[in-house]
Amino acid sequence: MSQFHCDCCEKDKIHTDDSCSTGYATTKDGNKICFDCCSVRDRQVMIDLGNSALYLSKDEKGYKVTNWPGTLMFRCTTPRKGKHNIARTRYDVWFTGPDGQDWHGVQYGENTQIVHCKRAIKRNTANG
Q1: What's the predicted TM-score (pTM) here?
Q2: In sequence order, what are the beta bridge partners of 92?
Q3: Rounded to an integer, what distance in angstroms lies between the CA atom of residue 66 and that of residue 38?
Q4: pLDDT of 128 higher than 50
Q5: Quick one: which of 73, 35, 34 has its CA closest to 57?
Q6: Tens digits of residue pLDDT in 82-97
Q7: Of all residues in the chain, what percent carry a pLDDT higher than 90?
Q8: Spatial separation of the C-alpha atoms in residues 122 and 99, rounded to whole Å
Q9: Looking at the domain assignment, is residue 30 inside a domain?
Q10: Is 83 inside any structural domain?
Q11: What is the number of domains present in the chain?
Q12: For residue 126, is it within any domain?
């Protein structure tokens, strides 16, 4: 059990999860932010910047991409496996992001869950 003050929502929190987690993230400024606030911040960064590093995993409902604490989650397609010249393999997934737009994610190699995600570019195919 750990107790901390979230500098984002200004609430005192008690983390009772049995995992190895503290229940909060630490910003580069040293502020502690609860996992729920991490979700809000990560969602806004995705909308503002159009990219994010998330984590690819699978559960009983299928594949998903999540933020680090798992409080922000998007269901995605089954990864399409391809070749990569350095990492040897790459996996591509697609999902609907927090802005309602199509997003594409790429995971490089076999020994990671990190998936580099970007808002997909809509191409104008009317003119060829």
Answers
A1: 0.82
A2: 80, 106
A3: 11
A4: no
A5: 73
A6: 888 887 899 999 999 9
A7: 55
A8: 14
A9: yes
A10: yes
A11: 1
A12: no
